[in-house]
Prior knowledge:
Layout: H1 15-27, H2 40-65, H3 74-99, H4 105-114, H5 130-149, H6 157-185, H7 189-208, H8 220-225, H9 233-251, E1 261-263, E2 268-270, H10 276-283, H11 290-303, H12 305-325
Antiparallel strand pairs: 1-2
Helix pairs in contact: 2-3, 3-6, 5-6, 5-7, 5-9, 6-7
Amino acid sequence: MAGQDRPELVAAPDETALEAAFQARVDAETRIEPRDWMPEKYRRFMIRQISQHAHSEYVGMLPEGNWITRAPTLRRKAALLAKIQDEAGHAAYLYSAAETLGTTRDQTLEDLHSGKAKYSSIFNYPVLTWADIGTIGWLVDGAAIVNQVALCRTSYGPYARAMVRICKEESFHQRQGFEIMTTLAHGAPEQKEMAQDALNRWWWPALMMFGPHDADSPNSEIAFKWKVKRQSNDELRQRFVDMTIPQADFLGLSVPDPDLTWNETTGHYDFGPIDWDEFWRVVKGDGLCNRDRLDARRSAHEDGAWVREAAMAHAEKKRAAKQNVA
């Protein structure tokens, strides 16, 4: 019959059914892998999340890099170099994880350099003294650990696996920073004063790292639904405060918050209001170092173009030679 010559018509997959199956996998704590079907909104959400995390590691090398030549001892210099190298590695892991979702390294970097993509607001503050390096390790990396440990259980497999290694390395960074602060806080009066000044300047920006209040966080609902996040911004911020105040007490330093009190009823520290106007101003590009950070990253990218071109040419030469042998 004539009809037998025509191919069978195959019905297109029902998008609603696919989304339901996807959500069922997420609810069952089954990791989503690159070749699995996923909603386009999930794919875009994860690209944004992972690339912004990568940008934070990438930009985060800049404030510390300025102190490599000014570190007080050879030991401190070597430790700082190792930390910056770790951060470069973290950025590489995360950019690679983003690429598994269909984006490219060139595209993610273009989004950063154009200002379209954001990175952690904390890196737009100036690093004025050696004590700032200690405070960054203690507070900034400490806040990152609180935030990122939960991401080890995020629903997207490549991101979750990258976070396991990153968190292990961040724990060393936090201990390195706390050791610097311990040395300064228990040193000469001028050293303790330097440590206190750094804590005064970095405390509130560190609390801002967790993002806006839950009620003002537009992506939290979908992040919880897809199990990208497991705890809210405010829950993570509270955990960080509860963890850090005893450390400050050990150092003999005062947290710059007159409203800070221990709440016997809740079993947590109550703390004062955050300046959210400052937070949004920095996020939108009007912080003290926003322009400097992006200018430095753009310049580094442009200056390194010849290295990328040489590497691509070498790879192409090897590929062609391998084909000729075959």
